[in-house]
């Protein structure tokens, strides 16, 4: 009897834990060296969430500017296709994580946060536009 109660307790914890993990599973944090293998099998949109001046001083080729600090950030995010995968980077990984959290809150399902930011992407050999 006690074993059955313990077994049910473990099952409950496993289900509750998987629900919590599922809640966070829409944001995957990865380093720039891990991005290419993932984008090869799961293409998506590269989003640069830095400011316009940071973007103009250099960005990953093909990245779309979506300034997290802009007052129109949420409005612009709302116009994006929620079925696509999005790879977000900023300078250091801080703004991109905040942007990813907003996107998750807005119903996006496949969000990747590049934790080492633009400098990591550049060091990993991603093509950069001036």
Please characterize this protein's 3D structure.
The protein is of the alpha/beta class. The protein is built from six helices and seven strands, in the order αβαβαββαβαβαβ. The chain has a five-stranded parallel beta sheet with strand order 1-6-5-2-4, with helices on both faces. Strands 3-7 form a two-stranded antiparallel sheet. The longest helix has 23 residues. It is globular and about 30 Å long. The N terminus is likely disordered.
Q: Strand portion, in percent?
A: 15-25%
What is the helix fraction of residues, given as a range? 40-55%
Q: Uncertain spans, ≥5 residues at pLDDT below 50?
A: 2-24
- Computed over alpha carbons, the radius of gyration is 18 Å
- What structural category arises from helix and sheet content? alpha/beta
Query: What is the N-to-C order of secondary-structure elements (H for helix, E for strand)?
Result: HEHEHEEHEHEHE
Shape: globular
How many DSSP H or I helices?
6
Largest sheet: 5 strands, parallel
Major sheet: arrangement of strands: 1-6-5-2-4
Mean pLDDT rating: 86
- Cα distance, first to last residue? 69 Å
Key terms for this structure?
single chain, 130 residues, alpha/beta, five-stranded parallel beta sheet, two-stranded antiparallel ribbon, 6 helices, 7 strands, globular, disordered N terminus
Short précis:
The chain is an alpha/beta fold and 130 residues long. It is 48% helix and 18% strand.
Tell me the layout of helices and strands.
Layout lengths: L1 H23 L2 E4 L1 H10 L3 E4 L3 H5 L2 E2 L3 E2 L7 H6 L6 E5 L4 H12 L4 E5 L2 H7 L4 E2 L1
Parallel strand pairs: 1-6, 2-4, 2-5, 5-6
Antiparallel strand pairs: 3-7
């Amino acid at each position: 009897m006690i074993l059955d109660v313990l077994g049910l307790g473990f099952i409950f914890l496993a289900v509750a834990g998987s629900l919590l993990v599922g809640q966070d599973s829409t944001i995957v944090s990865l380093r720039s060296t891990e991005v290419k293998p993932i984008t090869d099998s799961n293409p998506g949109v590269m989003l640069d969430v830095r400011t316009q001046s940071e973007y103009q001083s250099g960005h990953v080729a093909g990245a779309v500017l979506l300034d997290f600090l802009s007052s129109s950030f949420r409005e612009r995010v709302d116009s994006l296709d929620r079925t696509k995968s999005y790879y977000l980077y900023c300078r250091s990984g801080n703004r991109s994580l905040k942007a990813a959290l907003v996107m998750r809150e807005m119903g996006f399902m496949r969000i990747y946060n590049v934790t080492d930011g633009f400098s990591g992407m550049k060091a990993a050999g991603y093509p950069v536009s001036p």
